[in-house]
Write a structure and sequence with these properties.
Layout: H1 10-23, H2 35-42, H3 46-58, E1 62-65, E2 69-72, H4 77-87, H5 93-109, H6 111-117, H7 120-138, H8 144-155, H9 161-173, E3 176-179, H10 182-204, H11 208-218, E4 230-233
Antiparallel strand pairs: 1-2, 3-4
C-alpha cells in the first residue's frame, strides 16, 4: 500500500483499501488488517481509517464483527444500488421522469426473456394483481402496490441480479405522483388500468408482439403530465388515501 502520511483524505484511503482487497484477492469471510495496522501502513490517523471503513461498509464491501474486525462481505447489488439512490441522487421532480425512463429501458431490454419464462402460475398471479388494481381504482384508492406486483411477476424469473436490484430500488424511490385535480388522476388511472388489462390478456394468450406493444405504450410518455398539474410525495404515502 502507498503511504498517505501527508494526504489525510479518507476517500484516498477508501480507494487504497479497495485496491488492497482486489490485489490480495480477499474473499467473503476474509479479514482486513486491524485498524491500527492500517493506520501504520497508510500513514494516516485512526479517524481517517475509520471513515474509509465506514464508506466500505456503506457500500456493502465489509462488515464489522465484534471480536473479529472488518470482514469482507458477499457481493450484494441491492446494497450498492440502495445506497447510490438514497444517498447520492437528489430528490427532485426530474427524478420522477428519470426513474420512469430507467424502468422503461429495463423492461423493454428484458421483455423477450421475461415473456419466454412466464408460466401458467405466473399468468394466474398477474390476473390476481390486475384484479387488485381494478379494486383499488373502484374504491378510489391508489394502485401503487398491485401495479408494482404486476410488473414484478412478469420479470421475476429473469436471472440477473443487477436487473432486479436496479428495478426494485427504482420502484422504491419512485414518488407517488399526486394529481391536484381528482378528475385528472381518475382519468390517468383508468387509462393505465386499460393498458395493464390489454397487457395481461396478451400475455395470457402468449401473444408476444401484442404484449410488447403494450409495454411500449405504457412507457411511451411520463407517468403524468403536464408537471404543473401534479405534486409528489414519498412512494406509498398515499396508498390508502382517496383519489
Amino acid at each position: 500500500m502507498r503511504n498517505f502520511k501527508s494526504e489525510k483524505l479518507y476517500n484516498s484511503v477508501y480507494q487504497e483499501l479497495r485496491k488492497y482487497i482486489s490485489t490480495n484477492k480477499l474473499m467473503p469471510g476474509d479479514k482486513l488488517p486491524p485498524e491500527m495496522e492500517l493506520c501504520e501502513m497508510l500513514g494516516v490517523s485512526r479517524n481517517v481509517v475509520r471513515e474509509a471503513l465506514k464508506a466500505l461498509q456503506l457500500m456493502g464491501v465489509v462488515n464489522p464483527v465484534p471480536g473479529l474486525g472488518y470482514l469482507i462481505q458477499t457481493f450484494n447489488s441491492d446494497k450498492i444500488f440502495e445506497n447510490i439512490f438514497y444517498h447520492i441522487i437528489p430528490h427532485t421532480d426530474d427524478l420522477v421522469i428519470e426513474i420512469f425512463q430507467i424502468n422503461a429501458a429495463l423492461e423493454l431490454q428484458f421483455f423477450n426473456e421475461a415473456f419466454d419464462s412466464l408460466t401458467e402460475e405466473d399468468i394466474n398471479k398477474l390476473g390476481d394483481a390486475y384484479m387488485e388494481m381494478e379494486r383499488k381504482i373502484l374504491s378510489k384508492q391508489r394502485m401503487t402496490e398491485p401495479d408494482k406486483r404486476f410488473h414484478s411477476i412478469i420479470y421475476e424469473r429473469i436471472n440477473n441480479r443487477m436487473f432486479h436490484s436496479i428495478k426494485n430500488i427504482t420502484w422504491e424511490m419512485r414518488p407517488d405522483v399526486v394529481i391536484k385535480d381528482n378528475d385528472a388522476y381518475s382519468k390517468f388511472c383508468t387509462e393505465s388500468l386499460a393498458i395493464h388489462k390489454r397487457l395481461y390478456e396478451a400475455l395470457k394468450i402468449h401473444d408476444r408482439e401484442a404484449a410488447r406493444k403494450e409495454i411500449v405504450i405504457h412507457y411511451s410518455t411520463p407517468p403524468i403530465g403536464p408537471r404543473e398539474t401534479w405534486t409528489t410525495s414519498d412512494f406509498g404515502e398515499n396508498e390508502n388515501k382517496d383519489i
